[in-house]
Amino acid sequence: MLRFSRIISTPIGEMIAVAEADALVYLDFVDEEIQSECSNHPLLLQLEQELNEYFSKRRQIFTVPLSPFGTPFQKGIWETLQKIPFGTTLSYAQEAKLFGNPKATRAVANANSKNPISIIIPCHRVVASDGTIGGYSGGVWRKEFLLSLEKKALK
Question: How far is 59 from 37, CA to CA, in rounded Å?
Fold first, then answer.
């Protein structure tokens, strides 16, 4: 399957986006300089526009089609993440309950950590049960930025 990639600049760093013909399969932060094609595939241009709108507080819902690679369990968790409303947070335990398996808190956290599509599949909206921010593969400072951005956009 053909893949297309594009580097997208955001206020919190460069991101690499990868799409197949009809869906986004990967979006994550890159902290080191990488060499990558900068495809003008329509889906990647749409993604860049939607991310710009998100960071400008003009978009709360993304419309880019997604097709993340993962196990059926991981995909179920990632679908659950997309049900967390913009500007709100859940604990891992609450996410496990929403997923339909309240005893799977650790497995849910593990699946969140393997989320291949940052921001759009909003694992940044999941926090520790004690209310602390918890971890984030893109860096805790980015998670704090995203949560703050969403709260300010709601005001």
Answer: 27
In angstroms, the CA 57 to CA 59 distance is: 6
Reply yes or no on whether the pLDDT at 76 is more than 90: yes
Is the pLDDT reported for residue 35 higher than 90? Answer: no
Catalytic member of 64, 111, 117, 123:
123
Asked whether 49 and 56 are in contact (CB, 8 A), the reply is no
The tens digit of pLDDT for each residue in 113-141 reads: 999 999 999 999 999 888 888 888 889 99
38 catalytic residue (yes or no): no
Please report the DSSP string for 49-107 in residue order.
HHHHHHHTT--SS--S-B-----HHHHHHHHHHTTSPTT--EEHHHHHHHHT-TT-HHH
Q: How far apart are the C-alpha atoms of 74 and 83, rounded to whole Å? A: 15
Alpha carbons within 13 angstroms on the beta-carbon side of residue 1 total 10
In degrees and rounded to multiples of 5, residue 32 shows phi and psi of -115, 160
Q: Residue 92: is its pLDDT beyond 90?
A: yes
* Distance separating alpha carbons of residues 28 and 119, to the nearest angstrom: 8
Query: How many C-beta atoms lie closer than 10 Å to residue 65's C-beta?
Result: 12
